[in-house]
């Protein structure tokens, strides 16, 4: 199968492919998603096959607006309406009870809940609106690998496995959306993202919890990113929590370092062995997956050391992704 690259003015061709049951990758403000009509079980199963994704890992349903979501949600509680009004379109995913019989088990994992998202990307909004159906939207990459933030990343992983890729340029955020579970008594963040628990709590006017538990091997996770290893390059990743500790590492030409520019300036390594995350945490969020992919493509790198940040509301998403990529491996822990 030849994978076609579509420009911004070729949305209609992508719509046609999706309507025929094909898979098409699409841009969002967070990362690129892999789209298939959410109501077509065969197409949805094709997403799992293309990614090499475990079949018990539920998919996010991407909609054009709240009205489309209402066709598939059992109910839209007042909490959800508050968050939609404040954050949609945007990097927030809502876990709600699914309307029975509307979506295949391949989407829900056989659960009675499903996650809905409305991205802040006009191309994708137009794509779904013209299609008339929601699409599933897991990250458009090989399962376990760093998520794609450019069309080139998608092509690298899924060339000849999917029908098309809509090139919307680099993504703005660079990390996946926040997922909040609204099917429980007290709202809980299942996956951190750009929108913080504190921001969600302010809008809802109530406490928002943060999930810290692990999903047992026999259980189906309620949302993506909760059970399986994610975001990992082929080489081992080590988190360096204190920038001063970079000075304790015995670097060589097989070492890769990912850090803020001010930290990299103090490290004596060839430029090709360093990846600049930028000036601050916002830049680091945007560049983390690109950094991991940069070194994943290098055959001569054996270990990647990545700068960590003090864990708090603002760094929650970054550290969540980095800890998963590193398998919890920290330099001094």
Automatic annotation (TrEMBL):
Q: Which UniProt keywords apply?
A: ATP-binding, Cytoplasm, Nucleotide-binding, Nucleotidyltransferase, Transferase, tRNA processing
> So what family is this one in?
Belongs to the SUA5 family.
Name a biological process GO annotation: regulation of translational fidelity
Q: Name one GO molecular function term.
A: tRNA binding
Task: List ligand-binding residues for L-threonine.
Answer: 30, 117, 177
Which protein, by its recorded name, is this? Threonylcarbamoyl-AMP synthase
Localization per Swiss-Prot or TrEMBL: Cytoplasm
Species the sequence originates in: Lactobacillus helveticus (strain DPC 4571)
| Family matches, as InterPro entries | DHBP_synth_RibB-like_a/b_dom (IPR017945), Sua5-like_dom (IPR006070), Sua5/YwlC_C (IPR038385), Sua5_C (IPR005145), T(6)A37_SUA5 (IPR010923), TC-AMP_synthase_SUA5 (IPR050156)
Q: Which residues form the YrdC-like domain?
A: 8-195
């Amino acid at each position: 199968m030849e994978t076609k690259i579509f420009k911004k003015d070729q949305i209609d061709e992508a719509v046609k492919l999706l309507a025929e049951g094909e898979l098409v990758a699409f841009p969002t403000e967070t990362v690129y998603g892999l789209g298939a009509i959410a109501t077509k079980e065969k197409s949805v199963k094709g997403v799992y096959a293309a990614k090499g994704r475990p079949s018990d890992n539920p998919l996010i349903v991407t909609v054009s607006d709240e009205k489309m979501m209402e066709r598939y949600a059992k109910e839209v509680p007042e909490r959800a309406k508050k968050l939609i009004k404040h954050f949609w379109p945007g990097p927030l995913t809502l876990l709600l009870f699914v309307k029975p019989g509307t979506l295949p088990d391949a989407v829900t994992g056989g659960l009675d809940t499903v996650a809905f998202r409305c991205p802040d990307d006009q191309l994708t909004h137009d794509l779904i609106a013209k299609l008339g159906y929601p699409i599933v939207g897991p990250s458009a990459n090989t399962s376990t690998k760093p998520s794609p933030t450019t069309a080139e990343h998608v092509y690298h992983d899924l060339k000849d496995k999917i029908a098309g890729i809509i090139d919307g340029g680099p993504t703005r955020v660079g990390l996946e959306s926040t997922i909040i579970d609204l099917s429980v008594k007290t709202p809980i963040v299942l996956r951190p993202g750009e929108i913080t628990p504190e921001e969600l709590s302010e809008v809802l006017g109530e406490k928002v919890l943060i999930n810290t538990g692990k999903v047992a091997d026999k259980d189906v996770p309620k949302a993506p990113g909760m059970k399986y290893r994610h975001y990992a390059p082929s080489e081992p990743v080590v988190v360096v929590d204190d920038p001063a500790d970079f000075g304790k590492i015995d670097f060589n030409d097989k070492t890769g370092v990912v850090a803020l520019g001010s930290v990299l300036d103090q490290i004596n390594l060839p430029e090709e062995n360093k990846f600049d995350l930028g000036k601050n945490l916002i830049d680091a969020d945007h560049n983390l997956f690109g950094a991991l992919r940069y070194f994943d493509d290098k055959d001569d790198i054996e270990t990647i050391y990545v700068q960590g940040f003090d864990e708090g509301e603002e760094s929650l998403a970054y550290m969540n992704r980095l800890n998963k990529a590193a398998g919890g491996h920290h330099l001094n822990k």
